[in-house]
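**User:** Once you have settled down, spend some time on the protein underneath, comparing sequence with structure tokens, and judge whether sequence predicts the tokens.
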Amino acid sequence: MEEEKKPTKRVMFGSQFVGEIPAGDFMAELKASQELFKVKGINLPPIPIERQMFAQARSFAEAGAMLYRGDGGMKIGSGVVGPFVVMSVFSIELYLKTLAAVHNVPKLQGHELVDLWGKMPAAARDIAKREWPASRSLHKVEGAPQLRECLARLSNVFVEWRYVYENDVSSHVNIPEVVACTYCLDAACRAAFHARGK
């Protein structure tokens, strides 16, 4: 009996084929790629911490998005709403911390989104604010709330929803706001990397 071949990904260095690595989650592929480069004698500069933070934020956002997309969207009682909320709001936290790091703010601590927002420099907040209207429109957020308003409503959700069964009351979560915040902050981080040449 022939053994089933596991999926792989090709690793390139510019236009040069370096080898193949096992396909998996982003961080595992990143580590495997780094090892492959090392074995092949290709010395790459270390990955800046803000790029690592961004990769982690994106991995949680993508995991949340996979639950959200499911079979046409989430259904109440399906069991995926809680994990979607926790992963997505955690990604928002990581995006905020990434945006601050790109603007040379020392490592931010905590989970409260509105506090993290307040600790970011105005330039970082301005980038996110510029991305907000398009994301708010794309994800059909009702009314015209500002980004900070949505972050304030989601501020403690990560802490409250991780162990929702331990709380008497959990925060109400507006799903389109969660999705819009996630997409907005991903775009803001990408714009900040570009603007600051990082």
The domain at 49-195 is CATH 1.20.120 (Four Helix Bundle (Hemerythrin (Met), subunit A)).
